[in-house]
Amino acid sequence: MRDVIAAKRDGRALSEAQIRAWIRGVTDGSIPDYQSAALLMAIVWRGMSRDETAVLTDALMRSGRVLDWSGLGRPTVDKHSTGGVGDKVSIALAPWVAACGAVVPMIAGRGLGHTGGTLDKLEAIPGFRTRLSAAEFEGQVRKIGVAIAGQGEDLAPADGALYALRDVTGTVESVPLIVASILSKKAASGAAGVVFDVKCGAGAFMPGREEAAALARELVAVLSGMGRKAHALVTAMDEPLGAAVGNANETAEAFAVLHRAAPADLMDVTQALAVRMLVLSGVARERHEAEARLDRALETGEALGRAERMVQAQGGDPRVVGDPGRLPRAPVEMAVPALRAGYVGAVDARRIGELVIAMGGGRRRKEDVVDPAVGVRLLRKGGERVDAGEVLALIQARRDAPEWTEAAARAFTIADEPPDKSPLVLEEIAP
Fold it and tell me: Which among 166, 199, 306, 380 is annotated as catalytic?
């Protein structure tokens, strides 16, 4: 392993045998975390070719069981986001798309860096289980058409180990590692197609649009090379998505999508991804048909019912889908006032995400326990007019801490003129 680390440190390509031996060692525990951390850092600095990335993806996928839905009789499709602050889209998207006739076997992840994770958000629901065996996952998908779970012990387990290690070693921002991590989970879950939501902006791991587009192209190219369908959207993440940040807050807001009661930006991004999933899977022939199917699923209550069945199947209280008051809420609420009158020029998503972590809503170390009850609720966002002293946000915490209020205030830029509004969907990438 020392020779493998040195090879990548010096900028040499790793052989297929070296990559597969590393992943076998991660899977069986024979390679210690400190050596994997060193190799991860070398990859961050030196990169990997597309061939190396493809081998790493395949090795991670084959570290556990690979599901096969070929005999299901219904189209399968999945979605993955590269992560952003307030990105709770998957929680509503998966049951909504399943209610339209597609099957959604979704393998999700935990928080990385300053962003929250879908699994952490779902675990805010009392009793909800995100750890499912492959047999449990498969059974639920076949029964109700949707499941959102972690890798567990038998689906891409090596990726699960490396995912947690990357979070605490500063090795998240690497295109080959991101591509291999995402695609190994998606390929292991067996979906025939995947729609990617690649974020860019202040709150994303890829701040620049060109970086994000490059990642999107790599995801689409590598997955297409594995014989799966792929499509990607590059979406803006300069400010938090929606109004809620923090695990319980975000879960409640995600279910609000299915009640047509969520903020407009969250509704728009969720629907844009849902449309692409229905078209990619063949459930809908084109965008207008997909939109009509999605509207009908909301009007009939089928999307809500599918979300309730998913929550119940995974041990959670299905009543939270319609009653967010059943989710945990921190006891202390602090107001964040505007320091002067003007227009909200921007809300720095990264600062808000880091604040939630400081309050206990995310991880600094791999073993940290996440507090689902803490969070931030944005009352004003970019472009809105505010008066001096007007409340911009509410902080929900376990204790009164003026430094947290000050940190939140610093995330807001107040300008004399309203900012130019950029579109949420910046670019689409197909094979």
Answer: 166
